[in-house]
Amino acid sequence: MQILNKNKLKAALNKLAETADVFVPAARGENSGFYSWKTFDQEKDELMLEALNVYLPPKNVLFPQTERMYSFQEEGSGVVIKESFEDSSPTVIFGARACDVAAIDCFDDVFLTRGYEDTFYKSRRDNTTIIANACYQPGPNCFCASMGVNPTDPATADIIIRDTGEDYVWEARTEKGTALTQKIADLLENKEVKIPELQAFSKNVEYDGVAAKLKGMFEHPIWDKLSEACQTCGICTYVCPSCYCFDIQVKSFGEEGYRFRCYDSCMYREYSQMAGGHNPREDAKERFRNRFLHKLEFFQERYGKPLCVGCGRCIVACPAGISITEIIKEIKEA
Question: Sign of the C-alpha dihedral, residues 272, 274, 280, 283?
Protein backbone atom coordinates (compact mmCIF):
# COMPACT_ATOMS: atom_id res chain seq x y z
CA MET A 1 0.00 0.00 0.00
CA GLN A 2 1.06 3.55 -0.65
CA ILE A 3 0.85 5.62 2.52
CA LEU A 4 0.91 9.35 3.20
CA ASN A 5 1.75 10.07 6.82
CA LYS A 6 -0.35 12.89 8.24
CA ASN A 7 2.81 14.72 9.28
CA LYS A 8 3.56 15.09 5.57
CA LEU A 9 0.07 16.24 4.57
CA LYS A 10 0.82 19.96 4.39
CA ALA A 11 4.02 19.28 2.48
CA ALA A 12 1.96 17.27 -0.02
CA LEU A 13 -0.59 20.07 -0.37
CA ASN A 14 2.21 22.61 -0.88
CA LYS A 15 3.76 20.47 -3.59
CA LEU A 16 0.45 19.90 -5.39
CA ALA A 17 -0.28 23.63 -5.19
CA GLU A 18 2.88 24.38 -7.17
CA THR A 19 1.18 23.25 -10.38
CA ALA A 20 -2.55 23.40 -9.60
CA ASP A 21 -5.12 25.24 -7.54
CA VAL A 22 -5.86 22.84 -4.69
CA PHE A 23 -9.20 23.11 -2.87
CA VAL A 24 -9.43 21.61 0.62
CA PRO A 25 -12.26 21.29 3.17
CA ALA A 26 -11.67 23.94 5.79
CA ALA A 27 -13.34 26.11 8.43
CA ARG A 28 -12.98 29.82 7.82
CA GLY A 29 -14.55 31.96 10.51
CA GLU A 30 -18.14 30.80 10.97
CA ASN A 31 -18.20 29.20 7.53
CA SER A 32 -16.85 25.94 6.20
CA GLY A 33 -16.41 24.79 2.64
CA PHE A 34 -13.77 24.02 0.03
CA TYR A 35 -11.21 26.81 -0.11
CA SER A 36 -8.05 27.25 -2.16
CA TRP A 37 -4.94 26.07 -0.32
CA LYS A 38 -3.20 29.16 -1.68
CA THR A 39 -5.49 31.33 0.46
CA PHE A 40 -5.28 29.09 3.55
CA ASP A 41 -4.34 31.06 6.67
CA GLN A 42 -2.45 28.77 9.03
CA GLU A 43 -3.39 30.92 12.03
CA LYS A 44 -7.09 31.48 11.31
CA ASP A 45 -8.27 28.62 9.11
CA GLU A 46 -8.73 25.00 10.16
CA LEU A 47 -8.24 22.03 7.85
CA MET A 48 -11.26 19.74 8.16
CA LEU A 49 -10.26 16.48 6.52
CA GLU A 50 -11.24 14.56 9.63
CA ALA A 51 -14.70 16.11 9.79
CA LEU A 52 -17.53 14.60 7.80
CA ASN A 53 -19.04 17.24 5.56
CA VAL A 54 -18.13 20.89 5.52
CA TYR A 55 -21.09 23.25 5.23
CA LEU A 56 -20.63 24.12 1.54
CA PRO A 57 -19.90 21.38 -1.01
CA PRO A 58 -17.12 21.52 -3.63
CA LYS A 59 -19.53 22.15 -6.52
CA ASN A 60 -18.35 25.78 -6.63
CA VAL A 61 -14.96 24.56 -7.88
CA LEU A 62 -16.49 23.16 -11.08
CA PHE A 63 -19.61 25.33 -11.17
CA PRO A 64 -18.82 28.71 -9.58
CA GLN A 65 -21.53 30.67 -7.84
CA THR A 66 -20.89 33.44 -10.36
CA GLU A 67 -18.91 33.05 -13.59
CA ARG A 68 -18.37 35.16 -16.67
CA MET A 69 -19.32 33.43 -19.90
CA TYR A 70 -18.31 35.79 -22.69
CA SER A 71 -17.80 39.46 -23.49
CA PHE A 72 -19.36 41.23 -26.48
CA GLN A 73 -19.10 44.39 -28.53
CA GLU A 74 -21.84 46.05 -30.57
CA GLU A 75 -20.82 46.70 -34.17
CA GLY A 76 -23.45 48.49 -36.21
CA SER A 77 -26.67 46.49 -36.02
CA GLY A 78 -24.88 43.34 -34.89
CA VAL A 79 -22.96 42.00 -31.91
CA VAL A 80 -19.51 40.42 -31.94
CA ILE A 81 -18.31 38.00 -29.28
CA LYS A 82 -14.94 39.31 -28.11
CA GLU A 83 -13.81 36.66 -25.63
CA SER A 84 -15.11 33.44 -24.11
CA PHE A 85 -14.07 32.73 -20.53
CA GLU A 86 -13.61 28.96 -20.32
CA ASP A 87 -11.23 28.16 -17.47
CA SER A 88 -8.77 25.33 -18.11
CA SER A 89 -6.52 25.92 -15.09
CA PRO A 90 -5.24 22.71 -13.43
CA THR A 91 -7.32 22.11 -10.32
CA VAL A 92 -7.42 19.55 -7.52
CA ILE A 93 -10.34 18.86 -5.18
CA PHE A 94 -8.70 17.29 -2.14
CA GLY A 95 -10.76 15.37 0.41
CA ALA A 96 -14.21 15.26 -1.18
CA ARG A 97 -16.52 12.77 0.48
CA ALA A 98 -18.26 10.06 -1.55
CA CYS A 99 -21.57 11.95 -1.51
CA ASP A 100 -19.91 15.00 -3.07
CA VAL A 101 -18.19 12.83 -5.69
CA ALA A 102 -21.58 11.33 -6.55
CA ALA A 103 -22.99 14.86 -6.86
CA ILE A 104 -20.23 15.74 -9.34
CA ASP A 105 -21.25 12.63 -11.29
CA CYS A 106 -24.75 14.16 -11.49
CA PHE A 107 -23.25 17.41 -12.81
CA ASP A 108 -21.40 15.36 -15.44
CA ASP A 109 -24.70 13.83 -16.52
CA VAL A 110 -26.36 17.24 -16.83
CA PHE A 111 -23.58 19.22 -18.48
CA LEU A 112 -21.74 16.59 -20.53
CA THR A 113 -24.31 14.08 -21.84
CA ARG A 114 -27.45 13.86 -23.97
CA GLY A 115 -25.85 15.43 -27.03
CA TYR A 116 -24.78 18.76 -25.55
CA GLU A 117 -21.64 19.74 -23.68
CA ASP A 118 -21.45 22.88 -21.58
CA THR A 119 -18.01 24.16 -22.57
CA PHE A 120 -17.56 26.20 -19.39
CA TYR A 121 -18.18 23.18 -17.16
CA LYS A 122 -16.27 20.78 -19.43
CA SER A 123 -13.16 22.95 -19.45
CA ARG A 124 -13.00 22.90 -15.65
CA ARG A 125 -13.98 19.24 -15.35
CA ASP A 126 -11.36 18.03 -17.83
CA ASN A 127 -8.64 19.78 -15.86
CA THR A 128 -9.78 18.79 -12.37
CA THR A 129 -8.44 15.84 -10.39
CA ILE A 130 -10.66 14.55 -7.58
CA ILE A 131 -9.11 13.09 -4.43
CA ALA A 132 -11.88 11.45 -2.43
CA ASN A 133 -11.78 10.89 1.32
CA ALA A 134 -13.42 7.55 2.09
CA CYS A 135 -16.03 7.56 4.89
CA TYR A 136 -16.12 4.86 7.57
CA GLN A 137 -18.05 6.59 10.36
CA PRO A 138 -21.37 8.03 9.07
CA GLY A 139 -22.75 11.07 10.86
CA PRO A 140 -26.22 11.34 12.39
CA ASN A 141 -27.64 12.97 9.23
CA CYS A 142 -25.76 10.88 6.66
CA PHE A 143 -27.81 8.51 4.49
CA CYS A 144 -25.78 8.25 1.30
CA ALA A 145 -25.93 4.44 1.20
CA SER A 146 -29.74 4.66 1.05
CA MET A 147 -29.38 6.72 -2.15
CA GLY A 148 -27.03 4.27 -3.87
CA VAL A 149 -23.71 5.87 -2.90
CA ASN A 150 -20.81 3.72 -1.66
CA PRO A 151 -19.21 5.79 1.13
CA THR A 152 -15.91 3.88 1.14
CA ASP A 153 -15.41 3.45 -2.60
CA PRO A 154 -16.49 6.41 -4.77
CA ALA A 155 -16.03 4.82 -8.17
CA THR A 156 -15.32 7.93 -10.25
CA ALA A 157 -12.68 9.50 -7.98
CA ASP A 158 -9.19 9.81 -9.44
CA ILE A 159 -7.57 9.05 -6.06
CA ILE A 160 -9.03 7.69 -2.84
CA ILE A 161 -7.45 8.37 0.54
CA ARG A 162 -8.39 6.27 3.57
CA ASP A 163 -7.83 7.62 7.07
CA THR A 164 -6.22 5.01 9.33
CA GLY A 165 -5.48 7.36 12.23
CA GLU A 166 -1.82 8.28 11.72
CA ASP A 167 -1.73 7.84 7.95
CA TYR A 168 -3.74 8.05 4.76
CA VAL A 169 -3.78 5.05 2.46
CA TRP A 170 -3.24 6.61 -0.97
CA GLU A 171 -4.87 4.78 -3.89
CA ALA A 172 -4.66 6.15 -7.44
CA ARG A 173 -7.57 4.98 -9.61
CA THR A 174 -7.19 6.79 -12.95
CA GLU A 175 -4.52 8.16 -15.26
CA LYS A 176 -5.07 11.63 -13.81
CA GLY A 177 -4.72 10.16 -10.35
CA THR A 178 -1.50 8.36 -11.24
CA ALA A 179 -0.02 11.51 -12.76
CA LEU A 180 -0.85 13.50 -9.65
CA THR A 181 0.57 10.79 -7.40
CA GLN A 182 3.91 11.06 -9.16
CA LYS A 183 4.17 14.69 -8.06
CA ILE A 184 4.32 13.68 -4.40
CA ALA A 185 5.98 10.28 -4.84
CA ASP A 186 8.88 11.27 -2.56
CA LEU A 187 6.40 11.86 0.30
CA LEU A 188 4.74 8.46 0.01
CA GLU A 189 5.95 5.23 1.56
CA ASN A 190 4.99 1.61 1.12
CA LYS A 191 3.72 -0.35 4.09
CA GLU A 192 0.75 -2.43 5.14
CA VAL A 193 -1.85 -0.87 7.43
CA LYS A 194 -5.29 -1.92 8.58
CA ILE A 195 -8.20 -0.38 6.68
CA PRO A 196 -11.07 0.78 8.93
CA GLU A 197 -14.43 -0.96 8.77
CA LEU A 198 -17.58 0.88 7.74
CA GLN A 199 -19.78 1.58 10.76
CA ALA A 200 -23.56 1.35 10.68
CA PHE A 201 -25.69 4.25 9.49
CA SER A 202 -28.03 5.72 12.11
CA LYS A 203 -30.24 7.28 9.41
CA ASN A 204 -31.68 5.04 6.71
CA VAL A 205 -34.46 5.41 4.19
CA GLU A 206 -36.01 3.12 1.60
CA TYR A 207 -35.83 4.93 -1.73
CA ASP A 208 -36.64 1.97 -4.00
CA GLY A 209 -39.99 2.47 -5.71
CA VAL A 210 -40.33 6.15 -4.81
CA ALA A 211 -39.68 7.51 -8.32
CA ALA A 212 -42.31 5.19 -9.84
CA LYS A 213 -44.84 6.02 -7.15
CA LEU A 214 -44.35 9.78 -7.57
CA LYS A 215 -45.53 9.58 -11.18
CA GLY A 216 -49.09 9.42 -9.92
CA MET A 217 -48.79 11.86 -7.05
CA PHE A 218 -48.56 15.27 -8.73
CA GLU A 219 -51.99 16.33 -7.42
CA HIS A 220 -51.80 14.35 -4.18
CA PRO A 221 -52.88 16.31 -1.06
CA ILE A 222 -49.68 15.19 0.68
CA TRP A 223 -47.89 18.19 -0.84
CA ASP A 224 -50.05 20.60 1.18
CA LYS A 225 -48.96 18.89 4.37
CA LEU A 226 -45.28 18.46 3.48
CA SER A 227 -44.80 22.03 2.24
CA GLU A 228 -46.60 23.74 5.13
CA ALA A 229 -43.42 24.50 7.10
CA CYS A 230 -41.28 25.51 4.10
CA GLN A 231 -40.20 29.16 4.07
CA THR A 232 -38.91 28.96 0.45
CA CYS A 233 -35.66 30.52 1.68
CA GLY A 234 -33.64 28.41 -0.77
CA ILE A 235 -30.88 27.49 1.65
CA CYS A 236 -31.40 23.80 0.86
CA THR A 237 -30.53 24.44 -2.78
CA TYR A 238 -27.38 26.39 -1.99
CA VAL A 239 -25.88 23.85 0.41
CA CYS A 240 -26.95 20.92 -1.78
CA PRO A 241 -23.97 19.44 -3.68
CA SER A 242 -26.11 18.39 -6.65
CA CYS A 243 -28.42 21.40 -7.23
CA TYR A 244 -27.47 23.19 -10.41
CA CYS A 245 -30.18 25.79 -11.15
CA PHE A 246 -28.69 28.98 -12.57
CA ASP A 247 -29.68 32.27 -14.16
CA ILE A 248 -27.93 34.14 -16.99
CA GLN A 249 -27.58 37.90 -16.75
CA VAL A 250 -25.82 40.63 -18.69
CA LYS A 251 -23.66 43.58 -17.65
CA SER A 252 -23.35 46.26 -20.32
CA PHE A 253 -21.35 49.46 -20.52
CA GLY A 254 -22.41 51.49 -23.53
CA GLU A 255 -21.71 49.35 -26.59
CA GLU A 256 -19.90 46.54 -24.81
CA GLY A 257 -20.43 44.20 -21.91
CA TYR A 258 -20.42 40.60 -20.80
CA ARG A 259 -22.81 37.82 -19.90
CA PHE A 260 -22.47 35.83 -16.71
CA ARG A 261 -24.35 33.08 -14.96
CA CYS A 262 -24.98 32.69 -11.26
CA TYR A 263 -26.70 30.32 -8.88
CA ASP A 264 -30.47 30.50 -8.74
CA SER A 265 -33.02 28.46 -6.83
CA CYS A 266 -36.21 26.72 -7.88
CA MET A 267 -37.53 27.65 -4.45
CA TYR A 268 -37.76 31.32 -5.45
CA ARG A 269 -40.93 32.67 -7.04
CA GLU A 270 -38.99 34.63 -9.68
CA TYR A 271 -37.24 31.49 -10.92
CA SER A 272 -40.29 30.26 -12.82
CA GLN A 273 -41.92 33.60 -13.58
CA MET A 274 -42.34 34.23 -17.30
CA ALA A 275 -41.79 37.47 -19.18
CA GLY A 276 -45.51 38.12 -19.49
CA GLY A 277 -46.01 37.77 -15.75
CA HIS A 278 -47.48 34.24 -15.68
CA ASN A 279 -45.94 31.88 -13.17
CA PRO A 280 -46.65 28.12 -13.36
CA ARG A 281 -45.29 27.74 -9.81
CA GLU A 282 -46.79 30.76 -8.10
CA ASP A 283 -47.43 29.10 -4.74
CA ALA A 284 -44.81 27.85 -2.29
CA LYS A 285 -46.38 24.38 -2.40
CA GLU A 286 -45.81 24.18 -6.16
CA ARG A 287 -42.16 25.14 -5.84
CA PHE A 288 -41.66 22.72 -2.95
CA ARG A 289 -43.27 19.92 -4.96
CA ASN A 290 -41.15 20.67 -8.01
CA ARG A 291 -37.93 20.49 -6.00
CA PHE A 292 -38.65 17.07 -4.55
CA LEU A 293 -40.09 15.67 -7.76
CA HIS A 294 -36.87 16.71 -9.49
CA LYS A 295 -34.71 15.16 -6.77
CA LEU A 296 -36.62 11.92 -6.46
CA GLU A 297 -38.44 11.31 -9.76
CA PHE A 298 -37.45 13.46 -12.76
CA PHE A 299 -33.69 12.97 -12.48
CA GLN A 300 -34.17 9.26 -11.87
CA GLU A 301 -36.24 8.97 -15.04
CA ARG A 302 -33.71 10.85 -17.15
CA TYR A 303 -30.38 9.64 -15.78
CA GLY A 304 -31.18 6.45 -13.87
CA LYS A 305 -30.38 7.71 -10.38
CA PRO A 306 -31.78 10.17 -7.83
CA LEU A 307 -30.46 13.72 -7.64
CA CYS A 308 -30.17 13.38 -3.85
CA VAL A 309 -26.85 11.88 -2.73
CA GLY A 310 -27.67 11.59 0.97
CA CYS A 311 -25.16 14.10 2.36
CA GLY A 312 -27.67 15.44 4.91
CA ARG A 313 -26.69 19.10 4.50
CA CYS A 314 -30.23 20.25 3.78
CA ILE A 315 -31.48 18.51 6.92
CA VAL A 316 -28.90 20.36 9.02
CA ALA A 317 -29.41 23.75 7.34
CA CYS A 318 -33.20 23.94 7.03
CA PRO A 319 -34.54 26.51 9.52
CA ALA A 320 -37.93 24.79 9.46
CA GLY A 321 -36.59 21.33 10.24
CA ILE A 322 -37.69 19.77 6.94
CA SER A 323 -36.01 16.43 6.25
CA ILE A 324 -35.90 14.77 2.83
CA THR A 325 -35.70 11.37 4.52
CA GLU A 326 -39.00 12.00 6.28
CA ILE A 327 -40.50 13.16 2.98
CA ILE A 328 -39.40 9.91 1.32
CA LYS A 329 -40.93 7.91 4.16
CA GLU A 330 -44.25 9.77 3.92
CA ILE A 331 -44.35 9.28 0.15
CA LYS A 332 -43.78 5.55 0.65
CA GLU A 333 -46.63 5.41 3.17
CA ALA A 334 -49.07 7.66 1.27
Answer: positive
